[in-house]
């Protein structure tokens, strides 16, 4: 069964896409927690951080490079931004397809929020 994100990747569900290449897609979060809140998702379905294999290391690094590129393009790189990946229920993961939350455009408190 494909995830919500796979359905977005396959264009079965609409999304406000801000970046895409052969390995990943990024789109605006529908419930933003900051002025800029983008989800960066690999096209490969990997359920949780616990499922990342050695062969996925370059892909996960690529997600962070996309985050940095988008931060520069949106003008928030210098002020700073937050990148978070949740894992499983207690970690706040709601879609079991790894993804980075990239948030910026305001001062981020600790913990997230």
TrEMBL record:
Entry keyword annotation includes Nucleotide-binding: no
CDD domains: PKCI_related
Keyword Lipoprotein: no
Keywords in alphabetical order: Hydrolase
Active site residues per record: 99 (tele-amp-histidine intermediate)
Motif (Histidine triad motif): 97-101
Domain spans labelled HIT: 4-113
Residues in the signal sequence: none
MF terms in GO: hydrolase activity
InterPro entries xrefs: Histidine_triad_CS, Histidine_triad_HIT, HIT-like, HIT-like_sf
PROSITE patterns assigned to the protein according to its UniProt record, in alphabetical order: HIT_1, HIT_2
Family matches, as Pfam families: HIT
Protein name in UniProt: Diadenosine tetraphosphate(Ap4A) hydrolase
Organism, as annotated: Zymobacter palmae
């Amino acid at each position: 069964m494909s995830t919500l994100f796979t359905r977005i990747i396959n264009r079965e569900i609409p999304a406000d896409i801000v970046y895409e290449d052969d390995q990943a897609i990024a789109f605006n979060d529908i419930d933003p927690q900051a002025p800029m809140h983008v989800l960066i998702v690999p096209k490969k379905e990997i359920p949780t951080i616990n499922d990342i294999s050695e062969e996925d290391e370059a892909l996960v690094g690529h997600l962070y490079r996309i985050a940095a590129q988008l931060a520069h393009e949106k003008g928030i790189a210098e002020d700073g931004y937050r990148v978070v990946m949740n894992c499983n229920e207690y970690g706040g993961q709601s879609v079991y397809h790894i993804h980075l939350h990239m948030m910026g455009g305001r001062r981020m408190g600790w913990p997230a929020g």
